[in-house]
C-alpha cells in the first residue's frame, strides 16, 4: 500500500497520542479550533460552515470510503493466503515408485507429523501477527502475548490473535475495574483459549472501556484510568518499566482549561517580547494609565496621552521626566 505524503505527520501525532481515540480527538479538536467545520449555516447563502447534519455526513462518508478499502484489502489478503494454503502438499500423499527390476508399482504413504505441522503453523501465525510498531508500546512494553502503551489518562492494549479469528463473536473480552482477560474461540474444538488475563496494576473506569477486533491481527482494548498517573506495569504479574525513561510530556489539550489559557498567554507574551511589543500585563497597565492620564491629581492633567513617555521594560512602568505646566 502506497504511503500518503501526510503519513509522516500523522504518525508523529499517533506516536504522541499513543492510540486511536486520542488521535481522533486531536483531529476533531483541530477542526474545532482552526476551521468552520462545526459552524452551522443559518442561511444557504452563508459561505461559512455547513447546513445542519452535513458535517457529520461528511465524516461518515470518508470513514466508509476507507472502510470499503480495508475490506477489499482483507479480501485480497485472505485470497492470497488461501492460494498459498491450496498449494501446500497434502499431509498424507500416495507416491508411485517404479521398481527397475520388476516394473511393479509400490504404493508408499508419505506422512507428515501432525504435531510438527501444527507447530510450524503456530510459529507462522506468531511471526505474522507480532510486528509491533513503536506506537504500540509507547510509554509501555511489549510482552510475549500482548503489548501496551499509555498516556497520563489512558491505556491501550493490543493482543495478537490467530489469523483465522476474523469475527467479533469469536472474541471474548472481560474488563472489570481491577482485571482484564481476552480469549478467542478455537476453530476446531470450539473451546475458548485465554490469550491474556490478570489483575491490573491500577484501577480503570470499567464503563468507559472499549475494544475492537482487527480481523486476523489483534484485539485492541482501550482503558481509561481512574487516576491520572503513569503506570509502571499493565498487570501486577509483569515486569515493571522504568518510569524515569518514559515520555512524561502532556499534550496541551489534556490540561485543564485554565492551564491551557495560561500557557497560551505565556506563549503569546513571549512572541510579543521577541517583537519588541508590550505583553498582556503591560497592555493592561497602559490601559489603566491612559484612563488616569487626565484625571484629577494626574501630573499630566490637560495634556494628550503620550505613550512615548512610558517605558514598559522588564515588566516595570517608568514615566519619563518631563516639564508639565501646572494647571
From TrEMBL:
Residues 102-129 have a biased composition (Basic and acidic residues). One of its GO terms (cellular component) is cytoplasm. One of its GO terms (molecular function) is unfolded protein binding. InterPro entries: CS_dom, HSP20-like_chaperone, NudC_fam, NudC_N_dom. The keyword Phosphoprotein applies. One of its GO terms (biological process) is protein folding. The keyword Phosphoprotein applies. Signal peptide: none annotated. Residues 141-235 form the CS domain. Residues 102-138 are annotated as: Disordered. Keywords: Phosphoprotein. It comes from the Eukaryota. This is CS domain-containing protein.
Amino acid at each position: 500500500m502506497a504511503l500518503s505524503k501526510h503519513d509522516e505527520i500523522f504518525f508523529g501525532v499517533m506516536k504522541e497520542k499513543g492510540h486511536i481515540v486520542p488521535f481522533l480527538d486531536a483531529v476533531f479538536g483541530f477542526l474545532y479550533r482552526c476551521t468552520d467545520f462545526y459552524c452551522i449555516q443559518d442561511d444557504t447563502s452563508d459561505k461559512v460552515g455547513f447546513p445542519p447534519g452535513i458535517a457529520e455526513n461528511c465524516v461518515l462518508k470518508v470513514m466508509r470510503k476507507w472502510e470499503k478499502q480495508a475490506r477489499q484489502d482483507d479480501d485480497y489478503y485472505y485470497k492470497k493466503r488461501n492460494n498459498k494454503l491450496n498449494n501446500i502438499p497434502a499431509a498424507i500423499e500416495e507416491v508411485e515408485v517404479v521398481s527397475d527390476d520388476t516394473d511393479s508399482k509400490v504404493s508408499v504413504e508419505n506422512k507428515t507429523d501432525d504435531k510438527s505441522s501444527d507447530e510450524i503453523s503456530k510459529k507462522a501465525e506468531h511471526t505474522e501477527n507480532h510486528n509491533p510498531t513503536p506506537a504500540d508500546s509507547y510509554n509501555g512494553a511489549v510482552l510475549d502475548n500482548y503489548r501496551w502503551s499509555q498516556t497520563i489518562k489512558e491505556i491501550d492494549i493490543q493482543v495478537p490473535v490467530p489469523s483465522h479469528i476474523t469475527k467479533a463473536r469469536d472474541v471474548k473480552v472481560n474488563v472489570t475495574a481491577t482485571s482484564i482477560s481476552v480469549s478467542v474461540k478455537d476453530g476446531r474444538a470450539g473451546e475458548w483459549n485465554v490469550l491474556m488475563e490478570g489483575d491490573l496494576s491500577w484501577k480503570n473506569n470499567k464503563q468507559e472501556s472499549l475494544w475492537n477486533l482487527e480481523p486476523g491481527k489483534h484485539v485492541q482494548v482501550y482503558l481509561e484510568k481512574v487516576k491520572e498517573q503513569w503506570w509502571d506495569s499493565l498487570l501486577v504479574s509483569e515486569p515493571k518499566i522504568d518510569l524515569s525513561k518514559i515520555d512524561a510530556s502532556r499534550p496541551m489539550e489534556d490540561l485543564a482549561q485554565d492551564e491551557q489559557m495560561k500557557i497560551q498567554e505565556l506563549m503569546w507574551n513571549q512572541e510579543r517580547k521577541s517583537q519588541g511589543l508590550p505583553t498582556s500585563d503591560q497592555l493592561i497597565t497602559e490601559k489603566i494609565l491612559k484612563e488616569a492620564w487626565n484625571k484629577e491629581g494626574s501630573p499630566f492633567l490637560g495634556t494628550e496621552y503620550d505613550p512615548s513617555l512610558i517605558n514598559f521594560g522588564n515588566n516595570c512602568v517608568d514615566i519619563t521626566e518631563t516639564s508639565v505646566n501646572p494647571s
